[in-house]
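Protein modeling request. Please complete all fields; requests missing the sequence field cannot be processed.
Requester role: graduate student
Desired output: 3D structure, token encoding
Chains: 1
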Amino acid sequence: MKRLWLSLMLLAYGASLHGQADPGGAFLRSLAVPGWGHHAVDPQNWAAGKRHLAADLILIAAYAGYHAEADQLGRNLHAQAHTYARFDLAGRPRSFRIALADYDNLAAYNDAMERSRNWDRILPDTPENRWQWSDEDARRRFIGLINDEDAAANRLPAIAALLVANRVFAGIGAYRRAQAVSLSGTYRSGAPTLSLRIDF
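Delivered output (200 residues):
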């Protein structure tokens, strides 16, 4: 993701050599930083760019927040299993979380797998595979942590998709704005505005 963003920044910088009102450059700028293309084309009138920039900042903050929440819940999950089930989840596949959530101990889990004829899911009865919940409430809290972590993690792809969509729409808007400025013969760059008008 970082490499992609850096590539977009480099492309946008290269496109700036063609002038601030270049549609392709405006598109690339807004792909890299929403609103940048609008501002480059017309610094005095980039309200649409400001909206895209604000949306981007909000989405980035939301992504960072949910990512941090998922990480914290994951740490809490490991602590819960270690403290109340005497089990170390570090390096274990997700199937172990599900087993701990559904059964009080390894013996109960393996018995259920035998009864349901899921022979391939039976776990070896070794010390590192054993757990024992201290009480039912602790196991239920563990289940709640799994659900909360999944909910936080599942929001991340949707927010990432919105970030991409916002950049694409910002790029399209900046491209069209640059085209309109170029066709009207009006160019603004923070310097005095030059307007050209040809009447036939």
